[in-house]
Design a protein that fits this description.
Elements (H helix, E strand, L loop, with lengths): L22 E5 L2 E2 L1 H5 L6 H9 L3 H9 L5 H7 L3 H5 L11 H15 L15 E4 L3 H11 L5 E4 L8 H4 L8 H12 L4 E3 L10 H7 L2 E4 L5 E2 L11 E3 H9 L9 E5 L3 H12 L3 E6 L19 H9 L3 E4 L1 E9 L2 E14 L5 E5 L5 E4 L2 E4 L3 E2 L6 H5 L6 E3 L10 H18 L13 E2 L39 H6 L13 H5 L5 E3 L5 E3 L9 H4 L6 E5 L2
Parallel strand pairs: 2-19, 3-4, 3-6, 4-5, 6-18, 8-16, 9-10, 9-16, 10-11
Antiparallel strand pairs: 1-22, 7-17, 12-13, 13-14, 13-15, 20-21
Helix pairs in contact: 2-3, 3-6, 4-6, 7-15, 11-12
């Protein structure tokens, strides 16, 4: 007699084996660490994917959705995105800033122009005070949505610190001018040599405009207070302003630069190009000393320090100025001492010198690059106003950004806040809610090791102020973009489809995949074999 079975024989598709599972796979976009750490919140994985496909203009448009100055930022940004890049655990980080520069340079060479996001002109008028990175970023976002924007700047030309505070060997002025011109082409009205409180009063500004954004930066240098004589002493900001105006000061044979940030490095390298022997006196440790939590590292990039040292700039770390040593009025040098503690008990930058460690550094000029402050003269009333009064403050003047790319991000966020206040019909600002992804969640064995492509450095960098670092060659750019691991974002490699033992992964007609949960037993092979960590296994009750 034939035994009776508990089921009818037939095709396995008749049995919905998905009832067995205790977990199910879910496709979920993650937040790549590069975008997570980018101060401008660029969709770096998105534009790198387009660059990998050599869709250059589309990649540029994706990038400039958040950052309208890619050729500029690709040259001067300190690229924290690369420090966070998961690829560094495999071989070396993707050269994101070089690819950003490449896209910006392509846009300039090909005359690409920003597209309007909303062609309907709006009635509310907006004033942006300050044409630096924060002001330009905010004006760009508002203008492309149809708002009439007027940009005011006290200087003869727009750009702010990008123009006046960065030497040409790092940022050629023609590159900056081309990118600003592309932003202004959206219909932004520009008024230079116009200081609010002098050419235009505060009350007049508020009467004429529905919203005001103050992005005036920090243009007043902090001065050294330990010496009453101003002879042979100047600020780093003044030095760079004179240099960028084409009237650099005459320098003695030896120059001391006091400070540890980007301005100090720029001043020192510029002074070397003008023929002086230069020593940087920094109260902090060198960068990349793994003491970031203590806040004792120089607030500049290791790459810039290395380039300065290659140009024979001497760096003395953990030293502070005890006094200026003079022969009459003329400076003969600086007495320094070891910095025992960088911050006080409240965490404020307040170096304490260690007695008995004094040393002498010869110098005929002391250039202090010890920080900058906001100049609120003429803006006292606007400074006290609130967003509810139609006044916003951002960029360096807002207190948080210290770097140009952070100011770009601040300009974007302010623009979104202004749009919300003006009842713009859509909600363009999206809070990032994606999950983070680490290298441990990925499958690196699927990715071959590939060398990082670098822009070349000219052999004789001290011969004038020509740009020091060259960009990627045309053939190198797509190869470098292909090194992106697409962390947490599906790039349709088909691994989940290939490895599923139940054929429960289905390719969708428009691209991507879906799971047939009637037959998925929750074995987790698809998640285990996903190279970029895009698939999560969720527990099923």
């Amino acid at each position: 007699m034939t035994p009776e079975l508990a089921f009818e024989p037939g095709s396995s598709t008749a049995y919905r084996t998905g009832d067995w599972r205790t977990a199910k796979p879910v496709y979920r976009d993650k937040w790549p660490p590069c975008s997570q750490t980018c101060p401008a919140s660029e969709d770096i994985q998105g534009w790198l994917a387009l660059a990998n496909e050599q869709q250059w203009e589309a990649a540029w448009r994706r990038l400039t959705d958040r950052n309208p100055l890619p050729a500029t930022m690709g040259r001067i940004c300190y690229h924290p995105c690369e420090a966070a890049c998961n690829r560094s655990h495999l071989d070396s980080a993707v050269n994101i800033h070089a690819l950003e520069r490449h896209l910006g340079d392509l846009a300039i060479a090909n005359g690409w122009r920003h597209a309007m996001l909303d062609e309907v002109p709006k009635k509310q008028k907006i004033a942006v005070v300050g044409a630096g990175p924060a002001g330009l970023s905010c004006a760009f976002q508002l203008a492309r949505r149809g708002y009439p924007v007027t940009l005011f700047d006290a200087q003869p030309e727009p750009g702010g610190t990008l123009r006046s505070g960065i030497p040409a060997y790092r940022l050629p002025k023609g590159v900056l001018a081309d990118e600003i011109e592309t932003i202004l082409a959206l219909g932004i009205e520009l008024h230079c040599n116009t200081r609010i409180g002098r050419e235009i009063g505060e009350s007049e500004l508020r009467e004429q405009f529905d919203a005001v954004f103050l992005a005036i930066g920090t243009q007043r240098p902090r001065l050294y207070q330990g010496d009453s004589s101003r002879h042979s002493v100047m600020s780093g900001l003044d030095f760079l302003h004179r240099l960028n105006r084409g009237a650099p000061p005459e320098l003695p044979s030896r120059v001391a630069v006091i400070g540890g940030g980007n301005t100090a490095i720029d001043v020192a390298r510029s002074a070397r190009r003008l023929g002086a022997e230069v020593t940087i006196l920094s109260p902090q440790d060198p960068p990349a000393e793994h003491r970031t939590r203590l806040g004792t590292e120089m607030p500049t990039s290791l790459q810039e320090v290395m380039e300065a040292e290659s140009e024979r700039v001497k760096l003395l770390h953990r030293v502070g100025v005890r006094r200026l040593v003079r022969s009459g009025e003329h400076l003969s040098g600086i007495e320094v001492a070891h910095v025992d503690r960088v911050h006080d008990s409240q965490g404020r930058f307040n170096p304490v010198l260690f007695d008995g460690t004094e040393a002498f550094v010869p110098a005929g000029l002391a250039i202090f690059a010890i920080g900058q402050q906001v100049d609120w003269q003429g803006l006292e009333e606007l400074r006290q106003a609130a967003e509810s009064d139609g006044v916003w403050i951002g960029g360096d003047a807002g207190g948080s950004p210290r770097f140009a790319v952070a100011a770009v991000g601040s300009g974007y966020q302010t623009a979104m806040s202004i749009l919300a206040a003006l009842k713009y019909p859509s909600a363009p600002f999206e809070a990032q809610k994606k999950a983070n992804i680490s290298f441990k969640q990925m499958q690196p064995d699927y990715f071959p090791k590939r060398p990082r492509r670098e822009g070349k450095v000219i052999a004789q960098p001290l011969d004038g102020f020509d740009e020091t670092v060259q960009g990627l060659a045309a053939g190198e750019a797509p190869e470098e973009a292909a090194r992106c691991l697409s962390c947490g974002v599906c790039f349709q490699c088909d691994n989940c489809w290939h490895f599923c033992p139940d054929a429960a992964v289905i390719k969708k007609a428009g691209g991507g995949y879906e799971i047939d949960y009637d037959f998925c037993k929750g074995c987790g092979i698809c998640a285990q074999e996903c190279p970029c960590g895009h698939i999560d296994m969720e527990r099923v009750d």
